[in-house]
Design goal:
It is a single chain. The protein is mainly beta. The protein has one helix and eight strands; from the N terminus they run E-H-E-E-E-E-E-E-E. The chain has one helix at about 20-25; strands spanning about 10-15, 40, 45-65, 70-80, 85-90, 95-100, 105-115, 125-135. Strands 1, 2, 3, 4, 5, 6, 7 and 8 form an eight-stranded antiparallel β-sheet that branches. The longest helix is centred in the first third of the chain and has 4 residues, at about 20-25.
Length: about 140
């Protein structure tokens, strides 16, 4: 099994957490490998996750497992080294589990923005977010 490049030194940020309840729905649940936990955003027009890695990586794939009904039809991937200039890609995310390739680039940060959510209130629920590739 391929392991995610997200490590304890990776700094993650999210747009929001449902009812500000980080204990039950916080960003740490994106990476804990527990099938029972998830990040649950609060409502809003656009939700996002950013990752800042402790070193440059070469990303090959992004894996996202949504909860059905709380996913996103469209997403935007941005990445870079010191800024957000390297990758700007719009992707279709209309399913509950999705793996999509990423154009090869050496980066130290990623941002995934979830646009056009399937939930009427704009909430997103993600059980797993994995960044696959190699360390540079």
């Amino acid at each position: 099994m391929t392991h995610s490049l997200v490590c304890p030194e990776t700094v993650s940020r999210v747009s929001s957490v449902l009812n500000r309840n980080t204990r039950q729905f916080g960003k740490k649940h994106l990476f804990d490998q527990d099938e029972e936990t998830c990040w649950n955003s609060d409502q809003g027009p656009s939700q996002w996750v950013t990752l800042e890695f402790p070193q440059c990586i070469c990303v090959s794939q992004l894996q996202i497992q949504f909860q059905g009904g709380f996913s996103s039809r469209q997403g935007r991937l941005e990445a870079g080294a010191g800024g957000w200039e390297k990758i700007k890609k719009s992707v279709s995310l209309d399913c509950s589990a999705y793996t999509f390739p990423v154009p090869p680039a050496e980066v130290d940060r990623l941002k995934v923005t979830f646009e056009d959510t399937t939930d009427f209130f704009g909430r997103v629920v993600i059980y797993h977010l994995r960044v696959l590739g190699k360390k540079v």
